[in-house]
Write a structure and sequence with these properties.
globular; seven-stranded parallel beta sheet; disordered C terminus; 25 strands; alpha/beta
C-alpha cells in the first residue's frame, strides 16, 4: 500500500495558481498530498532535524515512506570565468545537497521511529534496545556518513540532466551538480545493477521537457542544436519502464537528432555520442553524415571560388556578409545585413545557446570549426570574419589595411589642452592623493595593480571604471576577480567606488556632468584597461584602446592636470625600423611602419597620445610590459591567454618549434610591484620604464626546463609543429592555429618568425632595473620561476611529461 504523498519545495505552502489547481485535482481523486515548505539547499545536517524528518515520522504506520523522487534544481547559467562560490552553491545546493539532506532526514526519522517502537518492549528487549540504539545513533546523524540511509525504501530516483552527460554551454555549475548526483547513484550499484537486497537507486539524465520548465522559451534553439524536447506523456512512460526494469545506476532519456548532434560535437563528446548513434539511428546515420559532409564541402568550395575571384578588400566583406546572414537567422532578425559587424557579439544579445547554434550553422556553411575563444575580449563579426578568412585562405595575404596612417591617428583632439591650474599637491609629493581612477581592474594584471595600490596606500580610495550594468554588479566582478588570484582582503569594498562605464564609448558612456564629476578629488589616473585580441584589426580595437586613452587624457585635463600612469606594451617596438636594434627607455619611438597586429597598432597610437599630452605639460609616466606570465610564487596564471596556451600547448604536444623564438615574459607580480613602486613619484614624470625580463629566454629552453631534469622536448620544424596542432583539436593551441599561420607585411613573416632572436627589437631595461633595485623590486630569474610555472602548467605531473 502506497503512502500519502509528501511534496517538498520552498513554495509548497504558497503554490502558484497552476500548481494549486493540480493539487486540488489529485485530492479530488483521493490522493492526499502533504506539503512541506523547505529549502533543500540547507544541507544534510540542517535537513536531518527539520520539519521534513518530523513529517516522515508522522506518517501512518500502515502507510510508511516507500520511495523518493528528487526533482529539485536551480539553473545558474554563466561562463566558468564568471562563477563564484556563491553561484556554484546556488546550483549545487538544491540538487546535490538536497539529495543528501532528504536522505539524512529519512534516516533520522527511521531511527526515531525505531527507538519509539522499542520503548514499548519488555525489559529484556529493552536491554537489547540499548545496544541497537547505540548503533543507530552512530548511523543516523548524517546521510553522508551512513552507508545507505534509504535501505528501507523501494526506490530512490534522482532527476539528473543531459547537461551532465554531454555538457551544456554556460551551465558548468548545473552540470557539476547533476554530475555529483549521478556519482552518488552509481555508488549503490555494481556494473549498473542494484546490489541484491538493496533498493533501486537511479539517476535519470533527462533531456529537456516540453511545457513550462527550465527549457521554456528555448525550443527553437535546442532543436537547432539537435536536442529535441520530451513530451510529458512519453517521459512518464519511460519512467514507468525504468521502474519496472529495476536497474539502478544512471540512465539517459533523450529525444535527440543524433546525426545533427554528431556534426556539432567536439572531440571529447564524440566517444559518448558514437555508440548512441550506432544503436539509435536506424542505419541511416552514415548516409546522413555523408550528405552533410558533401553539402559543407560544396558550400566551402563555392565560397573559395568566390573569394579567389574577389577584388582586394572584397574577400573580407564577402565573409562578413555571410556571417551577418547566419547570425540574423539565429537571432530571428529579418535583415541580417543590418547587424553592426563591428559591435561585440555579446552586446548584440548573443547568449551561450545562440553562440553554439551560430557556430554550428557556420560549420555547416563552411566546414570549419568556429572558436570564439581565439578572438579574446568581445568578439565581433569583423574579427570573426578575419579569423575565418585566414583559415579559408591560409596562404593568402593579410587582409588589406591600406590607408591606415597610425601617425595621423596619434594626434591629440584639436580642443585638448592642459589646464593652467596647478596639479593637486598629492601627486607632486610622491603620493596618489586621496583618490585615483583605475581602468582595467577586472583583468589579470588589473587585479594585481588594484591590490598593490590598496596595500601601499591604506587610506586610498579607488574609483574603478567597470563595464557593468550597476555599481553593485561591478563590485562583484572586482571581488570575484581578486578572489580568483587570492588577493581580496575584507574591508576593501569600503575603499572602492565602482563607476559603470565603457572605455569604447565617448566619455566612457557617461553624461557630461557625470564625466566631469568623475575628476573631482582625483590625484591621478592609472590607465591599464584595453581590449586584447590576436586577430582583431585596428578598427575593431581602437574604440576601446585608443578612444579610451583619449577619454583618460580629456578627464586628466578638465580641472587641474592629473598624473597619468599609462600601461603601454613592448608592442610599440615592433616597427620595422627597430628590428634587431637596441632600444633605450629614453628613445623616441616615432616610427610605426611595420607594426602589423591591430592590438600593437593601438598601443603605439595610445602611447604617442599620452606622450604628446606629456609634452604639453601633463604629468605622465609609461610602463612597457611584455607577455605577462603567472605569479612568481603561486604560479597563478591568466587562463587561456596567448602565453599560457603557448606553453601549455607545447608541453602537451611534447614538441617545440625549431626557431630562435625569444620569449619575452615576466611574472605578473613583477609588473604590478614595479608599477606600484614607481607610480606617482615626481622623478617618474615623463619617463618610460621597460618591464621585460632582464635575461630573455628561448622558448624551447624554457620548455625544456619545465620538464624533469631539464630534458629537452623534441624540437621539430615549424611545419611539423603546426601540423601537430592541427591534428589535435583538444590542444590549447588549436583555436589559435590561424593566428600562427598568418603572415604579415611585405616579407610575409609569421608571428613566431617576427619574434626570432636577431629580428625582434632588443630593448634595454638597465635604467629601469637600477631604479627598481633602489626601491627593493627585483625580477625573479627563470630558475626561480620553473617550479611554480611547472605546477601551474603541468599540475601534479610537473616532474614528468
Amino acid at each position: 500500500m502506497w503512502c500519502a504523498k509528501l511534496l517538498v519545495s520552498r513554495s509548497a505552502r504558497s503554490p502558484s495558481p497552476e500548481v494549486k489547481h493540480r493539487l486540488e485535482g489529485l485530492e479530488a481523486r483521493g490522493i492526499r498530498c502533504q506539503r512541506v515548505g523547505l529549502d533543500l539547499a540547507a544541507g544534510p545536517d540542517a535537513l536531518a532535524t527539520t520539519v521534513l524528518a518530523d513529517a516522515i515520522r508522522a506518517l501512518p504506520r500502515d502507510q510508511p515512506l516507500r520511495g523518493l523522487f528528487h526533482a529539485a534544481g536551480v539553473l545558474e547559467d554563466g561562463l566558468v570565468s564568471g562563477l563564484t562560490p556563491g553561484r556554484m552553491a546556488a546550483a549545487l545546493g538544491p540538487k546535490l545537497a538536497g539529495w543528501q539532506g532528504v536522505q539524512a532526514a529519512i534516516a533520522q526519522a527511521q531511527a526515531s521511529r525505531e527507538q519509539a517502537s522499542q520503548e514499548h518492549a519488555s525489559q529484556e528487549q529493552a536491554l537489547q534496545e540499548n545496544a541497537a540504539q547505540g548503533q543507530a545513533d552512530q548511523a543516523a546523524p548524517s546521510a553522508i556518513e551512513a552507508g545507505d540511509p534509504c535501505d528501507g525504501l523501494d526506490f530512490s530516483i534522482a532527476f539528473s540532466s543531459l547537461a551532465s552527460l554531454l555538457g551544456s554551454p554556460g551551465q558548468a555549475a548545473y552540470g557539476a551538480a547533476n554530475g555529483g548526483l549521478d556519482a552518488l547513484c552509481r555508488q549503490g550499484c555494481a556494473d549498473g545493477h542494484a546490489r541484491d537486497g538493496k533498493p533501486l537507486r537511479l539517476a535519470i539524465q533527462w533531456g529537456p521537457w516540453e511545457g513550462a520548465g527550465m527549457a521554456e522559451g528555448k525550443t527553437r534553439r535546442l532543436e537547432g542544436l539537435g536536442v529535441g524536447l520530451l513530451p510529458a506523456a512519453g517521459a512518464f512512460q519511460a519512467l514507468d519502464v525504468l521502474l519496472e526494469r529495476g536497474q539502478g545506476g544512471v540512465v539517459a532519456v533523450l529525444n535527440n537528432d543524433w546525426p545533427r548532434l554528431w556534426d556539432q560535437a567536439n572531440p571529447r563528446q564524440r566517444p559518448v555520442l558514437g555508440p548512441l548513434i550506432q544503436e539509435g539511428s536506424g542505419g541511416t546515420t552514415a548516409v546522413d553524415q555523408a550528405a552533410a559532409a558533401a553539402q559543407a564541402a560544396a558550400a566551402r568550395d563555392d565560397l573559395l571560388v568566390r573569394l579567389a575571384a574577389a577584388a582586394p578588400g572584397e574577400a573580407l566583406a564577402l565573409v562578413t556578409r555571410l556571417l551577418q546572414g547566419r547570425l540574423g537567422q539565429v537571432m530571428g532578425l529579418a535583415e541580417g545585413e543590418a547587424i553592426d559587424a563591428g559591435e561585440s557579439l555579446f552586446h548584440l544579445g548573443l547568449d551561450s545557446l545562440m553562440a553554439v547554434e551560430f557556430a554550428a550553422g557556420l560549420q555547416a556553411d563552411l566546414g570549419l570549426k568556429v572558436d570564439f575563444e581565439a578572438l579574446g575580449g568581445d568578439p565581433s563579426l569583423e574579427s570573426l570574419a578575419e579569423l575565418l578568412l585566414a583559415e579559408l585562405q591560409p596562404e593568402g595575404p593579410t587582409p588589406s589595411k591600406t590607408g591606415l596612417d597610425l601617425g595621423a591617428q596619434a594626434q591629440l583632439d584639436p580642443d585638448w589642452r592642459r589646464p593652467d591650474r596647478l596639479p593637486l599637491p598629492g601627486g607632486s609629493l610622491g603620493t596618489p592623493g586621496e583618490a585615483i581612477l583605475l581602468t582595467g581592474s577586472t583583468g589579470f594584471l588589473g587585479a594585481y595593480l588594484l591590490a598593490g595600490q590598496l596595500q601601499r596606500w591604506p587610506e586610498l580610495r579607488v574609483r574603478a571604471l567597470v563595464r557593468c550594468p550597476s555599481a553593485l554588479a561591478g563590485l562583484d566582478r572586482i571581488r570575484t576577480n581578486l578572489e580568483r588570484y587570492g588577493l581580496w582582503q575584507p574591508g576593501w569594498e569600503q575603499q572602492l567606488e565602482v563607476v559603470p562605464g565603457d572605455l569604447a564609448q565617448p566619455q566612457f558612456g557617461l553624461e557630461p556632468q557625470a564625466f566631469a564629476a568623475l575628476a573631482t578629488g582625483l590625484g591621478g589616473i592609472l590607465h591599464n584597461g584595453a581590449q586584447l585580441s590576436q586577430m582583431a584589426s585596428y578598427g575593431q580595437l581602437a574604440p576601446a584602446n585608443v578612444g579610451g586613452t583619449r577619454a583618460v587624457l580629456r578627464l586628466a585635463s578638465l580641472d587641474r592636470p592629473l598624473a597619468v600612469q599609462f600601461i603601454s606594451s613592448v608592442a610599440v617596438f615592433e616597427a620595422r625600423a627597430y628590428r634587431n636594434r637596441p632600444i633605450l627607455e629614453s628613445d623616441d619611438l616615432a616610427d610605426w611602419r611595420g607594426i602589423h597586429l591591430g592590438y600593437s597598432q593601438t598601443k603605439w597610437v595610445s602611447e604617442r597620445l599620452v606622450l604628446a599630452a606629456g609634452a604639453a605639460g601633463l604629468p605622465v609616466s609609461f610602463y612597457r610590459p611584455p607577455l605577462i606570465g603567472g605569479h612568481s610564487r603561486s604560479g597563478a596564471w591568466h587562463q587561456d591567454d596567448l602565453l599560457q596556451r603557448l606553453l601549455k600547448g607545447c608541453l602537451e604536444l611534447g614538441l617545440a618549434p625549431d626557431l630562435a623564438w625569444e620569449l619575452d615574459l615576466v611574472p605578473v607580480d613583477y609588473v604590478a610591484d614595479a608599477v606600484t613602486a614607481l607610480a606617482w613619484r615626481p622623478d617618474a614624470v615623463g619617463r618610460a620604464y621597460h618591464l621585460h625580463h632582464p635575461e630573455p629566454v628561448m622558448l624551447k629552453d624554457l620548455l625544456a626546463q619545465l620538464v624533469e631534469g631539464g630534458a629537452a622536448l623534441e624540437v621539430v620544424s615549424m611545419e611539423r609543429w603546426l601540423a601537430a596542432i592541427e591534428a589535435d583539436a583538444t590542444n590549447p593551441l588549436y583555436p589559435l592555429r590561424a593566428f600562427f599561420h598568418q603572415r604579415w607585411g611585405d616579407d610575409q613573416l609569421t608571428y613566431p618568425e617576427l619574434n626570432q632572436l636577431g629580428l625582434r627589437a632588443r630593448p634595454s631595461a638597465a635604467a629601469t632595473v637600477a631604479s627598481l633595485a633602489a626601491l627593493g623590486v627585483h625580477c625573479p630569474s627563470f630558475k626561480q620561476l620553473i617550479a611554480p610555472y611547472g605546477m601551474a602548467l603541468l599540475g601534479a605531473g610537473a616532474s614528468s611529461r
